[in-house]
Amino acid sequence: MKKFKIFNTEIKYDEENLIVLNSYKVKSKKEMILIIRLFEQKAGFESSKDLDTMVKKWTTFNRLYNLGLFRKRTKNCNLESEDSLLKSIIYEILGV
């Protein structure tokens, strides 16, 4: 996997994955959007998901991390992984 850094946010990626390391450190949705857009532009990465879906997932991971739930799993956020229908619904609800 390759690594990329935008501001103070590290991203590991390959053709199938886009993992934001220590994703809980980014608090605002505007910053999340900026990081994703800059990453896609600078790294030439084409995501299979739309920006809104990725931000909702990232926001959900942050909320769970901040609540102390599943900390080992929610510390980093894989924005490209395939999600079950149930997880997608949870991201829609919690990612607002």
Structure description:
The protein starts with a strand and ends with a helix. Strand 1 and strand 2 form a beta hairpin. The protein is built from 4 helices and 4 strands. Helix 1 (29-43) packs across helix 2 and helix 2 (51-66) packs across helix 4. Strands 1-2-3-4 form a 4-stranded antiparallel β-sheet, covered by helices on one side. With 96 residues, the chain is of the alpha+beta class.
Q: What's the SSE blueprint?
A:
Elements: E1 2-6, E2 9-13, E3 18-20, H1 29-43, H2 51-66, H3 71-74, E4 77-78, H4 85-94
Antiparallel strand pairs: 1-2, 2-3, 3-4
Helix pairs in contact: 1-2, 2-4
The overall average pLDDT, rounded, is 93
This entry's quaternary arrangement is single chain
- Helical stretch count? 4
What structural category arises from helix and sheet content? alpha+beta
Shape: globular
Number of strands: 4
Helicity level: 40-55%
Strand content: 15-25%
String of helices and strands: EEEHHHEH
Q: Which stretches of 5+ consecutive residues score pLDDT under 50? A: none
